[in-house]
Write a structure and sequence with these properties.
- InterPro entries: ASHA1/2-like_C (IPR013538), START-like_dom_sf (IPR023393).
- Belongs to the AHA1 family.
- By secondary structure, the chain is α+β, with helices and mostly antiparallel strands.
- The protein has a single domain, classed as START domain (Alpha-D-Glucose-1,6-Bisphosphate, Chain A, domain 4, 2-Layer Sandwich), CATH 3.30.530.20.
- The chain has 3 helices and 7 strands; from the N terminus they run βααββββββα.
- A 7-stranded antiparallel sheet has the order 1-7-6-5-4-3-2.
- Helix 1 packs across helix 2.
- It is globular and about 45 Å long.
- The N and C termini lie far apart (45 Å).
């Protein structure tokens, strides 16, 4: 029987929930922090403000490109947005699909963000995504101060 893995990361940012929600849903906000440190995003259709397809191509310093795509499944501003996630192989075929939810709540210390990445295929994928999301969150923290 297949065992799927889940990842949960949480951070508090010193901004309003509305501001944080814009960072995690709008094309302008996402383009500024999407992808781990050292990666650029030369191509993307990152728009989590509406249901529908999305994709991004991340490129590392050596020119390696990594495409990921999915479909925005729900939009509930300024509280949450959810989307499917699947990496593409070198031939452009989508791999195993998982699901990500960004949940934003107001706290007395600022806006609280929870990233739930559910249904990853194995522990190695969960570890890789934990590292990737953690690095991306560092970039987001630099913006949200």
């Amino acid at each position: 029987m297949e065992t799927l893995e889940d990842v949960r990361l949480e951070r508090v940012f010193p901004v309003s929930a509305e501001t944080l929600y814009r960072y995690v849903s709008s094309p302008e906000g996402l383009a500024r922090w999407w992808g781990p440190d050292g990666m650029t995003v030369p191509e993307h259709a990152l728009d989590f403000t509406r249901k529908g397809p999305w994709f991004s191509v991340m490129e590392n310093g050596e020119g390696q490109r990594f495409k990921v795509s999915g479909h925005v499944t729900h939009v509930d501003p300024p509280k949450s947005v959810g989307f499917t996630w699947a990496w593409h192989d070198d031939q452009g075929r989508r791999g195993a699909e998982s699901h990500v939810t960004f949940t934003v709540t107001e706290t007395d210390r600022g806006a609280h963000l929870v990233i739930d990445h559910l249904g990853l295929p194995d522990a190695e994928a969960a570890e890789n995504h934990t590292r990737g999301w953690t690095s991306s969150l560092v970039k987001l923290e630099r913006l949200a101060v």
